[in-house]
Amino acid sequence: MKDLFSLAGQTALITGGGTGIGLGIASCMVRAGARVVLVGRREPELGAACAQLGAQASYIPQDITRTHELEAMVRQAGASGGGPVSILVNNAGIHLKKLAIDTEPEDFQAVLNTHVVASHALTRAVLPVMLERGSGSVLFISSMAAFMGVPQVIAYAAAKCAFFGMVSTLSAEVSEKGIRVNGIAPGWIFSEMTQKALDNDPARKARVLGRIQMKRMGSPEDVGHAAVYLCSPAAAYVTGVTLPVDGGASVGF
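Structure (tokenized):
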């Protein structure tokens, strides 16, 4: 059983891997035996994350919206990761909290560019090597905001909904060639920022916890464990799905 969940010999490229959910995924994948290459715009945070993760981690500072640079970045990731990228985790994103009526088209486009356009461009950059090898795993990190109506996040929700279509379409195109494509939709995940925000708004905190069937927020590692499973041999017959990791919030009353 241990071997079924092993990622030994795999090189995972994780966008937005320096903090939060991305770092939680990276930590779990390292413990499962993978080499991880973290990508993000903030080099100090990437360096600190790699120092925490150890020798199996490296990083590349990169704005993924600079899509013309991504093919070269994938080659660099393969070199620094000790082998071709065999796992891609599309996790990077930006958040925008505005009412729909106040969301300018430029705001909306910026969110879509980071989440959707850049994720497609990066996936397109890693696919040739995966197709050549006849194996690989692509993972899109969606959100429970794609399942339920959360006010003031119309651009973010639209971007995360787009991942559903990307997962199913890409899976239909490449699964028979040995490449599995899946998604994860995290719910409320603990962070210092989230904790501070909820502690300063007791009514909202009660509403959030009341919606979660397990009555607690999740951890970045909860998402990481699901990511390891979906990218491991244990999920060899799993493709085209988006797995909620939300403590039951998306089906809560």
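Helices lie at 20-31, 43-53, 70-80, 105-133, 154-174, 192-199, 202-211, 220-231. Residues 3-189+219-248 form a domain with the Rossmann fold fold (CATH 3.40.50.720).
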